[in-house]
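F.,

This is the one I mentioned.
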């Protein structure tokens, strides 16, 4: 069964860093785009970062310069390095890909940033 397993969330203080991981199973992640979304309480889910099959990256304006998306192809895993975290980054973070024609979401990992 194709799966994405997200991990790495936690409670941190403003200015701290966290790294989220998204481990893929049953398919070769490097052959597909990978996204990180987040959903804050009372808000819609938003795309924060994307890594393409060719390794290109895109970021939302709210995280540009602070977050870095990457992959380790040997581990079949995607990462989101989050630096200079702020309270407004508090959200559940989800990894996502579209494998063939089907969407797959990780289970979500909670990031809480205290001021």
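My design for it:
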């Amino acid at each position: 069964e194709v799966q994405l397993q997200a991990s790495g969330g936690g409670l941190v203080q403003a200015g701290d860093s966290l790294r989220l991981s998204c481990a893929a199973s049953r398919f070769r992640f490097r052959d597909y785009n990978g996204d990180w979304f987040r959903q804050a309480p009372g808000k819609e889910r938003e795309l924060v970062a994307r890594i393409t099959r060719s390794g290109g990256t895109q970021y939302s304006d709210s995280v540009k310069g602070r977050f870095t998306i990457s992959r380790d192809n040997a581990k079949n895993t995607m990462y989101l390095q989050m630096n200079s975290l702020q309270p407004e980054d508090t959200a559940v973070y989800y990894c996502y890909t579209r494998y063939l024609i089907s969407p797959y979401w990780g289970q979500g990992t909670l990031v809480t940033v205290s001021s």
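The chain is about 0% helix and 55% strand.

Talk soon.
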